[in-house]
Amino acid sequence: MASKTDWFTESRFGMFIHWGLYAIPARGEWVRSVERISVERYRQFFEEFNPESYDPRKWAKAAKNAGMKYAILTAKHHDGFCLFDSALTSYKSTNTPCGRDLVREYLEAFRAEGLKAGLYYSLLDWHHEDYPHYGDANHPMRDNESFKGVSHNFSRYLDYMHGQVEELCTNYGRLDLLWFDFSYGSLCGEAWKATELVRMIRRHQPNVLIDNRLEVSGSGFGSLATKKPSEYSGDFVSPEQIIPPKGICREDGEPIIWEACVTMNNHWGYCQMDKHFKPADMIVKKLVECVSKGGNLLLNVGPDAKGNIPDESLAILDSVGCWMSKNSGSVYGCGVSGLAKPEFGRITRNGAKIYYHVTENHIGFIPLEGLSKDQIKSVRLLETGSELQIASGWITDNYPDMAFVSFGDSPLLPNPIDTVIEVELKGNI
Ligand code: GLC
Q: Fewer CB atoms inside 10 Å of the end CB: C or N, the chain?
């Protein structure tokens, strides 16, 4: 039976975009908290913010060419700055020299490229006067004595937060995803009035997918991993900076939908000094690893203060796109194979099609582990569609039931990143 999550598990690969005022200090999106920057000192970035090069159509093309099927942009991050024209605050992009509703332009551009588009919304808000300051675990003023004893009307903050989420749900057309971030300590679940919030969201956006962070952070799965998920458990689990060793299942063993969110370097928001980018071949292998374990990969880019995705990120996306252009059939709509992970790589599966991802050069023939010859209808090199004949002869005689194939005389893989063998089964084993 069709489900509203079908497009998500079919897509497997998305773009996360962390962008905002913090691109100016260029030390990551937590810079206010880490450096305990006052709201007054941070204001200089608000008064300066004018990303002249911002062209989300370029971002959308880069995502599409990389083989990504959806994207999520930070509409508001922890610093409270809104990239959209909210009627509930003056702390928004339309009031900066930029003067633009950045969210609206992003949604239009990504939809125009045929991608699904969603928004990240921070539950934390370090700008709002009614969000806890002194003694909070994360607030930039958490240990500033001048805020000790200051009262905050948290209920008023929740009205603001719910009101902004309703603005996003009613003023920007169909949203495909809403990605909340994050619950911590006592601020989880009903502390956010999560049931009321989710009911409002689902009233306006019945098809939107919601993450699980109204209950947890990147740590913890939340009640979605139990047999009694709450009304605000969300639709998928969001492991962060990790690929779950064995995928993610409910307590009764049933697999659940999950999406690993991962940075390209070590920061979500733009960080000038962080040049520790993951190479493209690694990204391909990690995407395949996620899919082989039944999950999605949400890969992050952090545009700079001008509105440009860093060149390093663009180069990686372009290389990943080259591989995806010939091998996406082993990613889209694929998932757990039910076969043991082979020595030489990984296996993904889509019904009667099984994809062996060979990422190591191999001595002689490659064993199609887990299958017997009589189960196989055809074997093809996915990139070219060419037949890979099942080997026979003295070298494989010791393994009469196992099918072996060869890529030819070279000891090197046809595609050094990941050479994919597509096996079509005679039946759906
Ligand atoms: C963490 C960070 C936040 C980032 C998020 C992405 O929650 O606090 O900065 O947006 O991870 O998953």
A: N
**CATH number corresponding to 345-425:** 2.60.40.1180
Residue among 268, 274, 300, 301 whose CB has most ligand 1 atoms within 8 A, to mutate: 268
d(Cα 14, Cα 137) in Å, to the nearest integer? 30
pTM: 0.98
Ligand 1 first shell, C-beta below 6 A: 18, 29-30, 181-182, 217-218, 240, 261, 268
For domain 6-327, the CATH architecture is: Alpha-Beta Barrel (3.20)
Ligand 1 centroid vs 262 CA: distance in angstroms? 10
CA quadruple 381, 386, 389, 390: dihedral sign: positive
- 291-338 tens-digit pLDDT: 999 999 999 999 999 999 999 999 999 999 999 999 999 999 999 999
Distance in Å, CA 181 to ligand 1 centroid: 7
Q: If 0-12 CB within 10 Å is exposed, 13-18 middle and 19+ buried, where does residue 226 land?
A: middle
Tokens 């956010």: give the residue: 192
Question: What's the CA dihedral at 122, 125, 131, 135 to 10 degrees?
Answer: 100
Identify residue 366 by its one-letter amino acid code.
Answer: I
- Cα separation of 395 and 341, whole Å? 23
